[in-house]
Amino acid sequence: MKLNLKNPIVFFDLETTGTNINTDRIVEICYLKVYPNGNEESKTIRINPEMHIPEASSAIHGIFDADVVDCPTFKEVAKNIAKDIEGCDLAGFNSNRFDIPVLAEEFLRAGVDIDMTKRKFVDVQVIFHKMEQRTLSAAYKFYCEQNLEDAHTAEADTRATYEVLKAQLDRYSELQNDIAFLADYSSYTKNVDFAGRMVYDDNGVEVFNFGKYKGMSVAEVLRKDPGYYSWILNSDFTLNTKAVLTKIRLREMSNLITK
């Protein structure tokens, strides 16, 4: 089934130095840009992460320090990547929990101002898990009836993710061929920040999603315990989480002044 698109959508996959969204870095990014008319553009970029790639990570994706020593850093390619995805919705496999937060962190480190909050995010893994509870290789076998060759290479995983989503639309009549619907369906929570440390509750209020204040209004916590804001800023949280929390704090301070 051909995707019904209002905007271009970029399917992308990252290979990284590890799984910590706060500190690990991208070593390869592949993205497949699909236009509303069905045209496609694909690009794969190897990136020097400016840190050692742990052997355990290299064993998974096959990229070693020597492979990226002469590659550009993310900062050197960030503006081009931002330009490529400008105005596009984004899709991936486990992208809402990992790839989107990691990419957002890399843009922040590179000093590239890109507003990703206006994008729609389709996570094909969430759709798969809600429907079948398997992995990408199993999803590709199940939906496309083919074995996924070169699994854990960004290019193969990106293409497989795109093919799986189209097959999911063919298989499940309850799925609407609409990116806004798919973005909503493939999200377990309404994240305020990409890491999901803050989420929207049923009333659209920002609440903390961790720790001693889990489920409590962010604005209320900032008023009652202003030191909590400083603790988060000085702790091991993502740059995006800190930036979003700061925006909420400034908004609440402005509201107090105007009252």
List strands and helices in order, with pairings:
Elements: E1 9-16, E2 26-34, E3 40-46, H1 55-61, H2 65-68, H3 74-85, E4 89-92, H4 95-110, E5 121-123, H5 124-131, H6 136-144, H7 154-171, H8 179-185, E6 198-200, E7 206-208, H9 218-224, H10 227-233, H11 239-258
Helix pairs in contact: 3-4, 6-7
How many domains would you count in the coordinates? 3
Q: Averaging pLDDT over every residue, what do you get?
A: 94
Distance between the termini: 53 Å
Q: State the share of residues found in helices, binned by percent.
A: 40-55%
CATH topology of the largest domain: Nucleotidyltransferase, domain 5
Q: What is the CATH homologous superfamily assignment of the largest domain?
A: Ribonuclease H-like superfamily/Ribonuclease H
What structural category do the secondary elements indicate?
alpha/beta
Helix count? 11
SS strand fraction: 5-15%
CA-based gyration radius:
19 Å
Low-confidence stretches: none
Can you summarize the main beta sheet? 5 strands, mixed
| Principal-axes shape call | globular
Enumerate the strands of the largest sheet in spatial order, edge to edge or round the barrel: 3-2-1-4-5
**What is the level-2 CATH architecture name of the largest domain?**
2-Layer Sandwich
CATH class membership of the largest domain: Alpha Beta
Give the total of beta strands: 7
